[in-house]
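fyi for ur records
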Amino acid sequence: MVGELRYREFRVPLGPGLHAYPDELIRQRVGHDGHPEYQIRWLILRRGDEGEGGSSQVDCKAEHILLWMSNDEIYANCHKMLGEDGQVIGPSQEITGEAGALDKSVLGEMETDVKSLIQRALRQLEECVGTIPPAPLLHTVHVLSAYASIEPLTGVFKDPRVLDLLMHMLSSPDYQIRWSAGRMIQALASHDAGTRTQILLSLSQQEAIEKHLDFDSRCALLALFAQATLSEHPMSFEGIQLPQVPGRLLFSLVKRYLHVTSLLDQLNDSAAEPGAQNNSGPEELSGERDRLELEFSMAMGTLISELVQAMRWDWALSRQRPLARSSCSIFQPQLAEAGPGLPPTRAQPSIRRSRRFRPRSEFASGNTYALYVRETLQAGMRVRMLDDYEEVSAGDEGEFRQSNNGMPPVQVLWESTGRTYWVHWHMLEILGFEEDIEDVVEANEYQGAVVSGALGVALPSWRWKPMTELYAVPYVLPEDEDAEESEHLTQAEWWELLFFIKKLDGPDHQEVLQILQENLDGEILDDEILAELAVPMELAQDLLLALPQRLDDSALRDLLNCRVYRKYGPEALAGHPAYPTLLEAQAQPQESAGAARVEGKEPPAQYPDTPLWRLLVDCGPPGRTFLDLERALSSEGPQETEIKPFLLQLQRQPQPFLILMQSLATPAANKPLHLTVLRILMQLVDFPEALLLPWHEAMDACMACLRSPDTDREVLQELIFFLHRLASVSRDYAVVLNQLGARDAISKALEKHLGKLELAQELRDMVFKCEKHAHLYRKLTTNILGGCIQMVLGQIEDHRRTHRPINIPFFDVFLRYLCQGSSMEVKEDKCWEKVEVSSNPHRASKLTDRNPKTYWESSGSAGSHYITLHMHQGILIRQLTLLVAGEDSSYMPARVVVFGGDSTNSLNTELNSVNVMPSASRVILLENLTRFWPIIQIRIKRCQQGGIDTRIRGLEVLGPKPTFWPVFREQLCRHTRLFYMVRAQAWSQDIAEDRRSLLHLSSRLNGALRQEQNFADRFLPDDEAAQALGKTCWEALVSPLVQNITSPASPTALETCPALACSSQPPDEDGISPLGWLLDQYLECREAAHNPQSRAAAFSSRVRRLTHLLVHVEPCEAPLPAAAAPRTKSRNRSHDWSSLATRGLPSSIVRNLTRCWQAVVEEQVNNFLTSHWRDDDFVPRYCEHFHNLQKSSSELFGPRAAFLLALQNGCAGGLLKLPFLKAAHVSEQFARHIDQRIQGSRIGGARGMEMLAQLQRCLETVLIFSGLEIATTFEHYYQHYMADRLLGVGSSWLEGAVLEQIGPCFPNRLPQQMLQSLSTSEELQRQFHVYQLQRLDQELLKLEDTEKKIQGGHETSDKEHKGEKAEEAEGAVVTNVVEEEEEEENEDLYYEGAMPEVSVLVLSPRCWPIASICHTLNPRTCLPSYLRGTLNRYSNFYSKSQSYPALEQGPKRRLQWTWLGRAELQFGDQTLHVSTVQMWLLLYLNDLQAVSVESLLALSGLSPDMLNQAITPLTSLRGPLDLREENDVPGGVLKIRDASEEPRPRRGNVWLIPPQVYLKAEDEEGRNLEKRRNLLNCLIVRILKAHGDKGLHIDQLVCRVLDAWQKGPCPPRGLVSSLGRGSACNSTDVLSCILHLLGKGTVRRHDDQPQMLSYAVPMTVMEPHTESLNPGSSGPNPPLTFHTLQIRSRGVPYASCTGTQSFSTFR
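which gave:
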């Protein structure tokens, strides 16, 4: 049998706990593209709750989705439905065998028996007309029912005589015959859906079937239809109030529904297989299909029209005009305060900005900005609010009053509230005083700052969006408009207009066709030509002017609500709303009676002034028609011929009739009107034409009158007479009364009137007997509505598959109501638009503030107080509650009456009246309203204890009742998700088989997304419905595609795509994802793509369009629900810091794309490093490569931070793959390159600017080192080269700028500490200068004292002369002693001539490299006396400064002079720039004509390499010295070069400082670094192994490793000693090794506690033999502080009298 294959392996997720499985193959057809398509039933399975039934699956066959699928889609999703040859197992391969279960001869005999039984049953029916059916007839029907249950005999029962038999049986008055007919129909319908539908359709399409069917027969057919469709379209509308539809209208809906389904089956069967249609040509087939499509569209439009009327949606739609949905992207989530996806072009409003004060976007953090505001703000300044905070909104302005230490601390007088309110510092923007404020138009930046609530965002950003054009909305491509098509209606618009033309009968239809022929050159119009007609807009406008006068009331409402009328109707062309009320559309050009009444004129004489006239006077001509009908009914012996025309007119325009019935819901004071209305209705029931009026639409008013406690007994008795008569004539209305709860209402009325109501008990029993039928009607209404929704979803699916327009009339109207309520988030306190009160409107907000301590108090006379609620459209109140308090005493209400109306002038319907008890606190006024009231008014008629004014504590409204939107959204999203996930799987299969097909993915996605966008713009009424569709489509189509194309082939991918397992093509051996391969190709052909005519340019364009399409949607993270925080008593409330905006994470799609891009970049960088790491120009080429990758990232994805971060992570991954020595070499090359560019930038000019540009590009690349293990090595080399620069050339602003940019690349921050030590040295130098001046002043003061003493000695007597001599001698001895002690220090204090300027740099070995300060200088032996004194004084000064912690923190340190530094010497007309060693050497030659290198080595204690490095520049062509080799002197002899020997510069600056010496990573120092890294790795692994799976906290791990490194027991002393200077270790080195092991997978983090680390896998590093690390020293040596000096003089201190040139210290 067809469709018995069940496959549960392939599941498609449709929602939480919801999956779809391909269940069976239903049918096959040929699609519009000529390829076969297969209809598959997808079974929906739910997983049971784990708490109740574990993970058991609940199989419900009733829930399913029918989906047409292509060959490729079945191959990718349902490959087990394929045969061994790979073809789909069609229906023809499944039916063989069962038909052969019966022998052909036996089957023929049974068919003959069936035909004879049918003839016998017809004859017996004719014989027993009007009598009791004989037993033979019942036996014959019983045998026929048994034959009908045999499926091979189904064809015999399709004989037209069977339908005649069933029609006679169903119309028989005997119950048993009707019951037997139902049994036969059930037997025939039990085989399959096609037979069931055919039987029901055949019966329902019989002429005048409704005349032959009574209530029971019709219910039998309806029950059969309900049973047949229950499993076809299972859909629950639980909680949604469905209208009461009578059986007559339900049967009409069933007929329409069956007709539509029949035409849909014919459409599918017409394209079943080409082989079955050999007898017809292609043109005939196309014409037949076009005819069926037109007929199906018209039938579907008719079904929707009648369903809209039955559901009473047309009245709701006619009262409101649908709002035009904004043309924005349905896939891009709409942020609050954000514009649509397509940028609007509107003028920016001007805002006020401060000229003086800084905005919040200029600060790095909120705390910094808060400090700035607190220090700057003054009383009286204007401020603006930046964030929403309690009662103050963002953008509000106010005046700053005061601040204190409370929370919040700032008090501002706000203009919006007129009072002060306390806020926080960071929430304010300073505007200043009025003279500081200016108006600016640039509002975008401010709005962005307000929305983000924090910093200004600069590119790159997480939410970067292109401005306009292709990349903004990639799938919306500009389409060329056809001028000819733009002047004509589209086919959908014309078919909608044609629907109304086909509604016309007789002369009206011919008149409209005549209008068409006159405008189309008299062409003869048949149905085929009408369907394909191209109608100009002018002709459509003429038709829309002619149609309203020719349509009945219901068709006119449809016309006014349809899209073609809203677009081309007269009101739309005139610029007015295209939704006039029905009465306005029907109004004749004559003066209405209502206008006459307004003008004070007397009513016409023929209509007396009665309550009925006053009720119907505003209805226009239809109202006068009803008044004429009432006059005819009031005459004696009314004739049917007189009444019938009025009833036919009322059928066309039933508004007066509905107004008449709804008047029964008016207050009981209208007793005369009620009696008149009931008398008229009682008379109308007796006319058969009156039963076709919409009685059911106004039965609510009858129930309201029946339930009202104030209804007069006489009116109630007449109402029961009328309802009994109506239910007796048509039992359909007894069913309606049962659905409305009439049984309980009648019982209460009987209890109230002590059972003295005639026919009340009979009416109650009649209503009770219809309980079963009421359940049937509800089920039928649900099935029809569900079936229509399923057909609508099927048309949407067909529209997606074929890309053909939807030409069904009223399709948008149907979707408009199904989506009603989707754009309105109705909560308990948001059901109304506004609240009005009778007095004190400024306190009306107290009614809705949810604070029971506040209240609204009225002011006025007793009984005049009211509260008016203006409700949102369509809100049905579930509960209206009034909050009161007994403590209000006489202010508490005592009696409250609630009225409803359509406007404030028509509040005449009393809904309820309540007496309030003094002890009450919550008074329920209304519950479960079944009608929407635009205006609800609460009137306080009386207060407790005779009070005058009243107090109301609060008002609560619960609503609305559920709408169809949640149900339709679930179904729409299910079908959309299944369709696009199946399609995504098929496309993924194509890409898996041939990844070159990925180039076509952009056009495929563009087509799908553009189609969904156009569908939403055309049919969906609001943004919420469109967003739900867009989100589902994006998640179902793009998310799986991105996951598949960004993942290499793996077992997981094979499970996701089962068809891939049987594919003949193996997965990629390289393991690269399809998108990764595509991006690799893009990067390779990027240079060739510069030629726009090349194939590479076209290829790159496709890749860019694809990537921008995939990333242009970035879903926002749903904000967390804000929990209600307790209020504090201080200030307003405690501030919730969690309200500060935080940047959200990218979506899963972006996350997968970034991972793919990161893998591509990592592979690119790894290949480049492997190939070029030894090149001399490695760094410039790497920077160029990185720059190209950056540009490619921006080209492919835009400057989004997520992809730039992926780029950096990819580069970091490539670097991590390098071995240690290669990585050290790379880091040294970068440090060298930066050093060369910094030194080259000193040149200035164009060359210097070029060097700066190269430096900036290199720094951008170096930032990747941050957080990597390579950063430690890079810091090591950079520290060395920076030290040489600072000591050899000097510091500059560029050093600080470089460190500021790449500071994160230095984990130990040693370069930053080096610059900080330089600034400390400068401060010490300034202090030393003051110290020298102080010493000089002291010496001068001593000289002055000595002169005074000498002058005073001449005035003494001769008697004291000997004594003075002795004292003077003694004093001379002491002075000599002191001078001998301080001679060395003060020998240059009185130096004659200009003293050289000396600057001392104090270096700390903690941050400066040890190799730079390993050679010490002895000033006593190597420097001239005038320099030694300065150095000694500095040493004394530094020793004294140790007592001042402000200058130098830490323990006391001692100075040790080094050979580092630089100097400037004057040599004739030249200024020589030399190092300290060179300065000493040149000054040493002032006293000697020649000196040997050997003696210099012995004198200085320098190494030969360092001395030779200093001598080489001095003996060059620019240098002043000459080195001569002598046999008896090793190393040669230096002497001053004679000017006559070789030409050299005569004047100016000469740079002789030794060049920079660069290190090699491959030398011993680099190997020592590698050894240290390996030793630390071994220590980390050993320690973690000892702690097992429990692991260790990272801080504890670092401490244990450092402790083991210093004290043992591992590594061995020999290994540590072999490291040399690399034996030092700190926490940063340990953390670097931990990061390395984490990256290698040797160490892992705990998922629940990321700070806990544990050992993961064995590591490959060889662990050395471990011994104690402690070398056995007694303790740490005292810290040493190394320093260098910088000397400068203000002139030449001395010069030789001879012609020999000498060197003088200039700097």
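The mean pLDDT is 74. thats all i got for now
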